[in-house]
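Service request form, structural biology core

Requester: graduate student, group of Dr. S.
Request type: structure prediction, single chain
Budget code: on file
Notes: please return the result as structure tokens.

Sequence provided:
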Amino acid sequence: MLARVRGGETAAYGELVVLHASVAKRTAVFLGAGADADDVVQESFVKAFRALGSFRDGAAFRPWLLRIVANETRNLQRSRGRRVRREELAVLPDDVLDPADHALSAERRGELLAAVRGLPDQYRLVVTCRYLLELDEQETATVLGWPRGTVKSRLHRALGRLRTQLPDKEVQR
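Core staff response, request fulfilled:
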């Protein structure tokens, strides 16, 4: 599909957008874009299209795109400049959640999300990528721009904090 886009077939880029729009929006919401997630995703796809010439052949498109989404979300947050407002906008709309997420009770999901939101940014971001967006370690490292070892250590520390905050709940190891 990427070869078709690079060959000038713009309709093929539309197929890429349809294929990756959902995960891009979830990424933007989970990383703090909140109500501005659609704008972040749109800007990310525009930037990705413009940068396709620098995209490495054989590389995975999804982590590369999500890295752009993460950067755009960070840019948005910097422009807001107020953490409290960002956290209010990070409320997860029901239409962004997967059906499997709906199976969790609303109370348990609320407790867990509150605990995750309470984590320092570096821990919240890694937990969001690994468990809420279901990215593997390498994809998480790519999206966040961190070495893989940093992802592992921060995830370990984040889960330890969650275990102490939610001692009677099951926190995945």
